[in-house]
Amino acid sequence: METETPEPTLRNDPFGDIPIELTVSVGQARPSVRELLDLADGSVLALNRNLDDPVELYAGERLIARGELEELEGGEPGQLAIRLTEVAGPGEDLC
Predict the structure, then answer these.
(1) DSSP for 2-69?
(2) Fewer CB within 10 A of the terminal residue: the chain, N end or C end?
(3) What is each CA distance from 54 to 11, 32, 37, 49, 92, in whole angstroms?
(4) What's the rounded Cα separation, in Å, for the pair 57 and 64?
(5) Quick check: 45 and 37 in contact, CB under 8 A?
(6) What are the tens digits of pLDDT across the range 42-87?
(7) Which residues contact 42 (CB under 8 A, 6 or more apart)?
(8) What is the set of domains in the chain, with CATH numbers?
(9) For the whole model, what pTM was predicted?
(10) Which DSSP symbol is given to 90?
């Protein structure tokens, strides 16, 4: 009779409580060097995304999820949060 070994989970892992920094990317800009040098208070820098496009959530260099920005319920007025709409599984990459 075989016994099954339970799969380890982060719930029981001592490293599961270590905080990790995540980065939310809302878009990219490609100004010329001249445009970059001309930036001042009040300058507007166009991004490669529209307001309704999903934002990307990174752990280091790895894209782990996409979502929508929204105001955090119960937080400080205007505090941003991200509602996830697509999450990569273990070993899976989002394109």
Answers:
(1) --PPPPP-TTT-GGGGS---EEEE-------HHHHHT--TT-----SS-TTSPEEEEETTEEEEEEEE
(2) N
(3) 30, 26, 30, 9, 19
(4) 6
(5) no
(6) 999 999 999 999 999 999 999 999 999 999 999 899 999 999 999 9
(7) none
(8) 22-87 (2.30.330.10)
(9) 0.76
(10) T
